[in-house]
Amino acid sequence: MQNTTELNDKPKRFIYHFNPEETEITMQTRDLEILYGKTLAMHNADIQFQKNTITALIGPSGSGKSTFLRALNRMNDGVATVKGQILYQGVNINQPKIDVYEVRRRIGMVFQRPNPFAKSIYDNVTFALQRRGIHDKKVLDEVVEKTLKQAAVWDQVKDSLNKSALSLSGGQAQRVCIARALAVQPDVLLLDEPASALDPVSTQQLEATLRELKKDYTIIIVTHNMQQAARLSDYTVFFNMGEAIEYNKTRKVFTRPKVQMTDDYVSGNFG
Amino acid sequence: MGKVFDEEIISLKADFMKLGALVGEAVTNAGQAFVDHDIQKAEAVVTNDHEINHLQIHIEKRSFEMIALYQPVTGDLREVVGILKAVTDLERAGDHARNVARSAISIKGMQRIATVEEIIATMALKVSQQYDDSIESYGDADEDKAKRTAQSFDKKIDELYNAIASPSYQAMAKDPKIVSSAIIYLNVAKDLGRISDYSTNICEWTVYLATGKIIELN
C-alpha cells in the first residue's frame, strides 16, 4: 500500500519520447491545440507514433481522443481550428498549402460503424482508384484481392464480389471498409472505435487483422474498450479533459502507470 | 483467447520449464556435491542460484502482465495462475538446493559419519527423481502422473529423513566432536525434505492446471 506522500510524488503527466536516432517515427504532433469556436478541446498532446506499431488512444467520453485522431488526417478542417504542427514523415501537414486529399490517401481512416457504400464489394474497394481514373481491370482485380486478403475477409467474400456490400455482416463490412482504406496504399491507418459495433468473434477477427496489418502500416486506434487497448496495442495514450495525460508502452500503462489518474482510469476507479 | 495470448503462454511455459530444469540441475548437483565432497560443484550451485532468482522474477513479472493485459479466464487463467504459484515453489526448492551446496562447503575438514552419508546419498537421489517427475507431470499437465509421484515418494522420503536423523542424534550424544557435522547432516536432510515438499506442491499445481481443482496430495 502506498502512502499519500508517495502518491503525491507521482507526476501529473508522463509522455514517452522516442529517441529519433533509434526509432522510426511516422507521425508526430507538436504544440497541438484544437479549438471548437473559442473552447479549447485539446492541448498538451505532443505524441510521436512509431512506425509499424499499434497505438491505442483511450480516455473517457469527451476527453478529446477522437478529436485528436481526426486532426491527424485533417478531418477537423472546417469543424475545428487546429494549431500547431502535425508532422507526417517530417512534413507539417497542418498547413493550407498541403493537399488534404493526398494527406487522407496516405493517412486513411476507418470509422466506428461500418460504412460501406451502396455498391458492390468490388466497387467499394476500388472506389477511390476508379475516381482517380484507374479502370484497368487487371490492376483493380489485383488491388481487390490483395487488400481483401490483408483485411482477412477475402475467403469470405471472394465468390460474391459483385454482391452489394450492404448485405455483409457488421464484422465483414468493417473489414471491407479496412480493405477500401488500404486500396489507396496509405502509410497510416486511423481507426475510430472500429469494433464497437461488432460482436466478440468479429472483434477478435478484426484485432487479428490489425495485428497482421501493423507489419506494413502504422496504426492508431481510438477505443472505449480498455481490454482491447491492453491486448492489442503496443503503446497507449490516455487522454482526459482535452490533454494527453500519459503516453507509454501499453504493458507499462496497464501494469504500473506513472500517473495516478491513469492508474485510476485503467483500474476503473475513475470519477 | 487470441493467437497472441496463445503465443505468449507458450513462451511463458517455456521459461517456466527452463527454470524447472535449472532448479532440477541444482538439486541433483547439490546432492552429488555433498555426497562426493565436491567443493567446486557445490560452489557452482551457489553461484547459479542468482540465475534462478532472476528467471523467477522475470516469470512473475510476465505472468502479472499477462493477467493485466489479457484478463484470461478458465483454462487460460489456470495456465497463468498455475505458473505464478508453482514458480515460487521452484524458486524455494532452488534455495534449499543452494543450502545443501553450502553445507557441502562448510562440512569440509570435519569428522564424517560414512553410514549417514550413504543414506543422504540415497535420499538426495530420491528427492532429485521426485522433483524431475513432478516437473515432467507439470509440463505434460499429467494429473495421474502428478498424483502417482506425490504418493509414491512421500513415505520413502520421510523414512529416509528419520534414517538420517536418528543416528545423527545418537552420534551427537556419544561424541561431542561430531556435533558440528551431525547438525549439518540434519540440515541437509531437512533441506532435502523441503525440496520433496515443494515437488509435491508442483504436483498439486499440475492437478489444478489439468482439472481446476485445488487439492492436497498427502
From TrEMBL, chain A:
Keywords: ATP-binding, Cell membrane, Hydrolase, Membrane, Nucleotide-binding, Phosphate transport, Translocase, Transport. It comes from the Bacteria. The keyword Cell membrane applies. InterPro entries: AAA+_ATPase, ABC_transporter-like_ATP-bd, ABC_transporter-like_CS, P-loop_NTPase, PstB-like. Residues 27-266 form the ABC transporter domain. One of its GO terms (molecular function) is phosphate transmembrane transporter activity. Its EC number is 3.6.3.27. GO terms for biological process: phosphate ion transmembrane transport. One of its GO terms (cellular component) is membrane. It is an enzyme of class 3 (hydrolase). This is Phosphate import ATP-binding protein PstB 3. It comes from Lentilactobacillus parabuchneri.
TrEMBL record, chain B:
It comes from the Bacteria. Keywords: Cytoplasm, Phosphate transport, Transport. One of its GO terms (biological process) is negative regulation of phosphate metabolic process. GO terms for cellular component: cytoplasm. The keyword Kinase does not apply. Its main location: cytoplasm. Pfam families: PhoU. InterPro entries: PhoU, PhoU-like_sf, PhoU_dom. Residues 17-103, 121-206 form the PhoU domain. It is found in: Cytoplasm. Belongs to the PhoU family. Homodimer. Plays a role in the regulation of phosphate uptake. This is Phosphate-specific transport system accessory protein PhoU. The lineage of its organism: Bacteria, Bacillati, Bacillota, Bacilli, Lactobacillales.
